[in-house]
């Protein structure tokens, strides 16, 4: 694992955006695995800025997002579909036919998940997977569990995740309790993985996930087994390593 220390959130965002830019410049038809949450927002802003300057072209890029709340329609501002359009897709020249987010409105979980696995398969595989990390070590919405889930699956969100994500909703009661998420095997199949972490509240989990035992109780710990992982974090998040 490679650790790239940044001064602060903005510095982390620029450094991570540079890594994604290099991927897009070197391989204009690459497949990006994308993430939501507050960690990647700054790097998406950098990508938009550089696209507007003419440095980047996303027309050939395919993207697959990690996860989506079950039951939230596309036009709900808290859905990850809405988030991706709002924070990235509507500002750059991505081809809507090539941007994929799990469909939270497919009520049948089995169908939603197998459809999304098929979508991921049809891309030919992820070249660069971007990840944030939850306070309990979740990646995508792969919550701590007794085993690592392989493909896309429906998860019951941990109470701590519901609490953490309630900051985006009017009340805790409005946070969906379930989500569809890409599985660990799919994440691990990406050729390269880029993790972004910022803030003092992530310092404990950074140490645990990347230097502690590899266990499904800390889902991000599996990344220690991947051959090409870069973690870009600010000083506060790296305080314990
Ligand atoms: C959410 C997302 C994850 C994200 C995590 C951390 O639960 N499903 O993909 O990595 O939260 O979010 P943040 O970056 O806001 O700390």
From TrEMBL:
Keyword Transcription regulation found: no
EC assignment: 3.5.99.6
GO biological process, one term: N-acetylneuraminate catabolic process
Residue intervals of the Glucosamine/galactosamine-6-phosphate isomerase domain: 13-227
Annotated Pfam families: Glucosamine_iso
Catalytic site: 67 (proton acceptor), 136 (for ring-opening step), 138 (proton acceptor), 143 (for ring-opening step)
Broad EC category: hydrolase
Keyword hit for Disulfide bond: no
CC per GO annotation: cytoplasm
One MF annotation (Gene Ontology) recorded for this entry: glucosamine-6-phosphate deaminase activity
Functional note: Catalyzes the reversible isomerization-deamination of glucosamine 6-phosphate (GlcN6P) to form fructose 6-phosphate (Fru6P) and ammonium ion.
Stated name of the protein: Glucosamine-6-phosphate deaminase
């Amino acid at each position: 694992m490679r650790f790239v220390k940044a001064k602060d959130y903005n510095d982390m965002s620029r450094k991570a955006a540079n890594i994604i830019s290099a991927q897009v410049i070197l391989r204009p038809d690459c497949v990006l695995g994308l993430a939501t949450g507050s960690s990647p927002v700054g790097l998406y802003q950098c990508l938009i800025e550089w696209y507007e300057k003419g440095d980047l072209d996303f027309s050939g890029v395919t993207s697959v997002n990690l996860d989506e709340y079950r039951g939230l329609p596309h036009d709900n501002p808290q859905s990850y579909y809405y988030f991706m359009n709002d924070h990235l897709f509507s500002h750059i020249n991505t081809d809507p036919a090539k941007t994929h987010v799990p469909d939270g409105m497919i009520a049948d979980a089995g169908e939603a998940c197998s459809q999304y696995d098929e979508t991921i398969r049809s891309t030919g595989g992820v070249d660069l997977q971007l990840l944030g990390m939850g306070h309990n070590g979740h990646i995508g919405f792969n919550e701590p569990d007794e085993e690592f889930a392989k493909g896309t699956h429906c998860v019951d969100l941990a109470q701590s995740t519901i609490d953490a994500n309630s900051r985006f909703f009017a009340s805790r009661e409005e946070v969906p309790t379930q989500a569809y998420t890409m599985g660990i095997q799919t994440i691990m199949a990406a050729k390269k993985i880029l993790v972004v972490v910022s803030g003092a509240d992530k310092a404990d989990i950074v140490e645990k996930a990347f230097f502690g035992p590899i266990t499904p109780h800390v889902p991000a710990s599996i990344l220690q087994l991947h051959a090409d992982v870069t973690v870009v974090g600010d000083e506060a998040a790296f305080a314990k390593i």
